[in-house]
Amino acid sequence: MPADVIVKAKSIITVDKDMSRAEAVAIDSSTGLITAIGTLAEVQASAPSAKVTDLADSVLLPGFVDSHNHPVMSGIVCMEPSFWIAPYVGFPHYDDVKKLFVKANKEQPAGAPLLFNGLDRSLQGVGELSNTDLDEFFPDRPVVVADNSGHEVYFNTAAITALGWVDNKPPADPAGSRFGRNEDGTSNGRAYEVGAMLIVSGKFMAEAVPHPLLSAAKWLEMMARNGVTMTSEHTYQTSMQKALIGLTMVPAAPIRVSLYHMSTDADCGDDFVSPVPEAMLKKNGVKLWADGSPWVGTIASTIAYLDNPTVVNAGITPGTHGEEMMNYSRAQIDAVIEAQGGKGLQFAFHCNGDIALDIVLDAFEYGLNKFNLVGTDHRWRVEHVGAARADQFARAASLGVCVSMSPFQYIYWGDILDGTLFDSEVGSQWQRVGDAVKSGASVSFHNDGSVSPPIPLLNIKTVVTRLTPSGKLHGPEQKISLDEALRCQTINGAHHLKRDHEAGSIEVGKFADFVVLESDPYEVDPASIDQIKIQGTWLAGKPVDGDAYLAQITAIDPSEHKDLHEVVASKPHNC
């Protein structure tokens, strides 16, 4: 069919190879594909009968791409009826969290369990919580509070009682995890790592979050409101297949999703079969965690944590935490690559420390040579790379490895990274986006829900200014241009998700996935880019209707996804 819709704007920033601009774009609404771009007269000549939608003074960009996210888990632990208590969503200090505790206990149904997620000890100025700390606010209902690191949860005495532990003593520690205990063996209201956390959270999550699919949909709808049209599920397991299909097959689904299968699943290399078109849902690759999180001291790195109250309160041992923080030996990494590397899948490797990145790049080079992939378009990936060095980006570029970076690490922790967690020489340079772009590597940005809210314009503002929300400047030499920042948040992200032939720029033959901005980012103060209002998001040539999407998901019987809580509670996650 010929184009039947024309969208006109004050300016269309295409993010094609020339960063060219246009006035109008023609769309075939039956396919959602772009058929022409140019002036209004040129586009109308190509589609004379098409209806014109005039966006007046608005500016059109390709839809933003968040190349690494966790929408299912993020929705369940962050969106209502759960409580998100991270410092950057309205709770900068622990006193703010305590006020919410009082309010929630007063307003929520008596006796109903409550879940809170995102306690950040380093930013909110609090140590580990205990059952007695929480009893002060919640004497009569089970409550679980998840640490923002993803490595521990805190719970009150009512939760301990509900768990049915004899004499309030936890069971034997599961492999690779543990329960906190008082001197007499009773629980102190703490559980560490996935196995122990699952026993606690899994008990209460289903009751606290009665419609888990709707919670996941709320996260995707929030991403769409922030202009995102494409993302990933970076902790996919086969047990999540039904949920991901449900989230993407309803008519109003707002975002395209790519899946990265956890390497710990025996079927991580298997094909993904789904009734949903691949344009909306597809499997890309295999996900692994090389090391841990900067915020709890588990990165494999040559840099040393400083010795001060902020570091100690976060439970971090001052000093250098090296290769012992790796989650895999080199031999184990090689074994995964040998088993899955010849199947055409991407590897996506969580790396924060420089030691971790060196080891992963060594393993990638081994695997690329083994499978004759050197010089090919393999798009194997490294994720986060907060402490990466300039030479490591150059090496990644030489290997054709994609670099998916985390501006949020600098945004929310930049002020304490520089001189509090680490010496300024290292901390000011965290997230070396400038070095990464200069290296010639393919660089994208992500927000890694549930660790941070998905706000692409804030990412863009930050990397072009190196300003944190406090207004402080750290590492100005790591700034990049606005052109580069937009590419990282659009076409480069699509490239990393193996979708740049479908979207990521506004070009003929691609899907009409747009974000509509109130102002031109090139015409505002760079420090206020994040204040530009997003007026709408389009997917495949149609405005996204978030209310319709949530209504369609609400209509799905939640009992069809009753096991989703346990799947989410069992996931490892850290930033």
Characterize this entry briefly.
The protein is of the alpha/beta class and 575 residues long.
List the helices and strands and how they pair.
Blueprint: E1 5-13, E2 21-28, E3 33-38, H1 40-46, E4 51-54, E5 59-62, E6 64-65, H2 71-78, E7 83-84, H3 94-107, E8 114-119, H4 121-124, H5 131-135, E9 143-147, E10 152-155, H6 157-163, E11 178-181, E12 187-192, H7 193-208, H8 212-225, E13 228-236, H9 241-249, E14 256-262, E15 281-289, E16 304-305, H10 309-313, E17 319-320, H11 330-340, E18 346-351, H12 354-370, E19 381-384, H13 390-399, E20 402-405, H14 407-417, H15 424-427, H16 433-438, E21 443-445, H17 456-465, H18 482-489, H19 491-496, E22 514-517, E23 534-539, E24 542-543, H20 546-554, H21 564-569
Parallel strand pairs: 1-4, 1-5, 6-13, 7-8, 8-9, 13-14, 14-15, 15-18, 18-19, 19-20, 20-21
Antiparallel strand pairs: 1-2, 2-3, 5-22, 9-10, 10-12, 11-12, 16-17, 22-23, 23-24
Helix pairs in contact: 2-8, 8-20, 11-12, 12-13, 14-17, 17-18
Tally of individual domains: 3
Write down the Rg: 23 Å
Secondary-structure-derived class: alpha/beta
What count of helical segments does DSSP give?
Answer: 21
Beta-strand content: 15-25%
For the record, the CATH architecture of the largest domain stands as Alpha-Beta Barrel
From the N-terminal CA to the C-terminal CA, the straight-line distance is 46 Å
User: Ranges with pLDDT <50 over ≥5 residues?
Assistant: none
pLDDT average, as an integer?
96
Report the CATH C-level class of the largest domain.
Alpha Beta
At the third CATH level, what is the topology name of the largest domain?
Answer: TIM Barrel
Q: Outline the biggest β-sheet.
A: 8 strands, mixed
